[in-house]
Structures are given as structure tokens and as C-alpha cells.
């Protein structure tokens, strides 16, 4: 599944470091599109160009304060992901809570970085997240799996499964999807891959593969979906070499 991806990654690695301004423009493009699509999947109505001007500090008329904050917050969360990667910090519960705190900052400060204390349901999904009383236990199990069992997996498998397991737990009242995609890209970036973008037009296949993984505990379809997105991102980077 990963042969073509690994060939492209080797090609990219052999060309590092990329030209300064090429790397800067790629980063800006990915940050914008990652922010736009991740928010759009969750119902944010700002267009790609409107997202761009909000990132530049301009207010868009007719849009809610929440939608503006979702853009700014997501940008700040990406910067935090980049900081974790640069510092080579060990993955931890603290990082997860900090990422979520950034995602919900100013939107719902009472629950930003705080595990939910209520039962929630995922609209359109067959899977029901666990009750709040066992969330801490489930998160500890996930972290144990990550640090022990998952280390023998390919980084794309590990990142995809981390995303799926996290969403299945749904530990927060809101912002789980954005946080999960940040965690996925954190894992990819730590292992030298460019970030991926789950596009809003592909969200049906994304949700269906996620729900299947939660119901069957088989992750192959979701891993393949993520691998396809990794290939797309690598294609973009390799195209500029």
C-alpha cells in the first residue's frame, strides 16, 4: 500500500532542504487549505478566499464571530503542531488537551481542553461514543496503545488509527474532528511527511470509513483513504522539485 508513497518520500527527502521561498509558499498554501477544509467539514461557511482574508486579519461581513474564531484558532493550533514537531516532543495527553484548548479558545472556554461530562452522539453515525465516566480510561488506553503497540506500524497506519480511535472516544464536547485531524498531521509531520488535507468534497467517504472502523474495529479502508491523501500531498511537494 505504501510503496509508491515511500518512493516519493525518498525523492523529497533527497531534495531537502527545499528552496526557502518555495517552502514558505508551500507552507502558506497548506496552512490555508488545511484550515479551510477542516473547518468546512464541521459546517463553517467561510469560503477559501474568505478564510484567507480572515487569516490576514480582515473581518468578513455577514459571518459569525465563531466562524472567524475557528479560522484563527485553527491557525494557532497548526503553529502549535509545528512547534511540537520542531522540538521533537514526546506525544502526550497534555499535547492533546492543549491542541483542543486552542481549537475552542474564545468559542467555549468552559470546555476547552476539558474532557466532556455529558453523553454525546455523532450525527449520522452508527457508533455511539463511550459515556463520560470512562473517557479518562479510554484516553489512557489510547496513549498506551500509541506508545507500545503502534510503534511497529507504518507511520501512516499509526496516524490514521490514532485519528480513528480518538474520534471513536470523542473525548470533548465539541472540536473532536478538528483535533483528530491535527493529531493525524502531527504524527505524519513528525515522521517527515507533509500534512494532508481531508477535503470537504470527500467528507462523505471520510465519515463512512471512520464509522466503519468504529463499528468493525477494522481500519483498512480508513488507512487507505489517508494513504491516498498522503500521496496527494507528496505529489504537490515533489512537483516543485
Automatic annotation (TrEMBL):
InterPro entries named in the record: Fido, Fido-like_dom_sf, Fido_containing
Domain Fido: 91-228
Protein name as annotated: Fic family protein
Organism of this sequence: Bacillus carboniphilus
